[in-house]
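Subject: Interface between my chains keeps coming out wrong

I've been trying for a while to get a sensible model of this assembly. When I model each chain on its own everything looks fine, but I need the whole thing in one frame so I can look at the contacts. Pasting all components below, labels as-is. Any help appreciated, I'm running out of ideas.
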Amino acid sequence: MKDKATFTIRDVARRAGVSTTTVSRVLSNSGPVSAEARRRVEQAIQALSYRPSRMARSFRAQRSQFIGLIISDVENPFYTSLVRAVEDVAYAHEYSLLLCNSDEDLDKERTYIQFMADERVAGVIGSPASEAETSFAALFDARIPVVSVDRRSMRTPVDTVLLDNVAAAHSLTQHIIAHGHRRIAAILPSSGITSGRERLCGFLQAMEEAGIEPDTNLVYEGKGSEEFGRQTTHMLLDRSDRPTAIFAGNNLITLGVLRAIQERRLRVPDDLAVVGLDEMPWMSLLAPGITVAAQPIHEMGQLAMQILLERIAGDRRPPREVKMAPRLIIRSSVAGRPLPETVSFNGNNKRR
Amino acid sequence: MKDKATFTIRDVARRAGVSTTTVSRVLSNSGPVSAEARRRVEQAIQALSYRPSRMARSFRAQRSQFIGLIISDVENPFYTSLVRAVEDVAYAHEYSLLLCNSDEDLDKERTYIQFMADERVAGVIGSPASEAETSFAALFDARIPVVSVDRRSMRTPVDTVLLDNVAAAHSLTQHIIAHGHRRIAAILPSSGITSGRERLCGFLQAMEEAGIEPDTNLVYEGKGSEEFGRQTTHMLLDRSDRPTAIFAGNNLITLGVLRAIQERRLRVPDDLAVVGLDEMPWMSLLAPGITVAAQPIHEMGQLAMQILLERIAGDRRPPREVKMAPRLIIRSSVAGRPLPETVSFNGNNKRR
DNA sequence: GTGAAAGCGCTAACAG
DNA sequence: CTGTTAGCGCTTTCAC
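Reply #2:
Try treating it as a single job with all components included. I did that and got this:
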């Protein structure tokens, strides 16, 4: 039993004195095999510690057992959790994960999408870098099912799992307004992606409902990175008419906002109120705690993977979209301002 | 140009009026091809938007273009960063990443190792769940190179990239001692893994150098999880002779320690000094800041992947081990203690 | 400079 | 119940 690098199904067949067909049958437990033959095959497998080549199997089946996961960055805790959730479901169904970071770069993303097609993966879960420009056509052509998470893809209709962004932004904004703030800034991810666009929408909607004319100088859209959040906050705080509250439109932006506040030695909520969209695991350690809308990330990842599994299994129904409800976690980053009921002069109106 | 699902090399050959051999030659840019033939092949490729099947290629080569990454959990920020670093280097060299979470479970880990072998991946980067028990033999037999990161694997000698754990724990402990603490607790990952064992060693060494007899009731080893850190801290703080300082042996444990401290409304460093091994991206936001020893995670991941690439390229030198230097980040979680030289009457003893 | 043919390891008709 | 055979898409001798 020297260690010949690897044994093949033929080695097993030879040793068991049967054909490869028979071996294949016992391996996949399909087709008829006599007890005797099975025994001998199993024994041969044992003896050689034979393991079928997954590569050959995939090749033969013209479909691999991989799920492609294309996200912007694993280091973003949101995606980290998403990856984990997807992975758990995937491995439970004998699929493994091919991980790609697009870094929000359309070229990179295109490359990876093409790569998944070239690889004939079983399915792809992706978070499109752009609502309008990302195209899953290459996968579509190769009949590889796709599920979009966190963001929509307009060019190719696919199953989509995302947060109810409007509701999340809306309730967060309402929360700020309820504490008497009127000069409220919003720092948001680009509206080229679903989350950015919808969160802006929810923000604006809440402002309007409260009869507050949003100051366009207080609304910023950008890369959705920590650095963007940080710089924008600094810019905002440099103004003579600074906002009294900031709505941070995603987890990284929130991080940047907090960083800037720290750099300026400002206190939350006394000097500035802050709310963020998306919770991060360590946030409860912060003092004061930051009020956020949390996303059910694990559920989203699991669901996305389950839908993908159904598609792989042949589900042909039209694509559906699932919107998950956010969960508001109220902490003390806005409480500072005492009054629920403020009088407001100037033409318009009461807070809600 | 209807969308036949996928074209093969034969379709291209037929359309270009050449043999598959020629097509293959222009694809891989090997062997002699006349300018004319090349032109026609390229044109056919274009026309059909043909893309070679990576599956077939891998199968033919009997080696895939995948790098297996077996870590305990992507959601642990340390591994998240490691994944990212490995991925960047991998993709730059046309490899993609197969991600597996072992959850520190030996069975799961064994399964994944076998899986990587079955998949004939090009190489594996892993962080062994156990120094003594994890075996890469299956990969060894399949001649698949392995690089171990963060932890050693004793059963199979492989290239290893890890932190100088002893130095890190030692300097952290020294830092605490320098501030006058003598009742110092250590909460560490299991000594079944390299990091746990070596960090304990560094801790003990520093204590000994300072002439402090470590109280064995203050040294705990366990799962290395946040929950372990949290519960152990509570237990420690329940004692009548509580420690005045805690050394948290990894990032999750640090998180747990801080959580427990928060739950008890204790103040750092006044009520308790804390140091942690391993930095996390958000730690600088904490007030007070926690003094930690940071690991050069990205460098570790990149290096591991580079070493792996050399092995894949055929490097046959004996396995080497690279130990990376930690970087001490001194913040204010220990500073509270004013004096390097405290008097201690031992019958009882004042708190800090 | 070019192509025919064999074969990577496996599975699935199909025939016995 | 079992084996023979063909072939998945690609690369690579080896002739020409």
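Reply #3:
Confirming on my end. Residues 45 and 123 of chain A are 32 Å apart (CA to CA).
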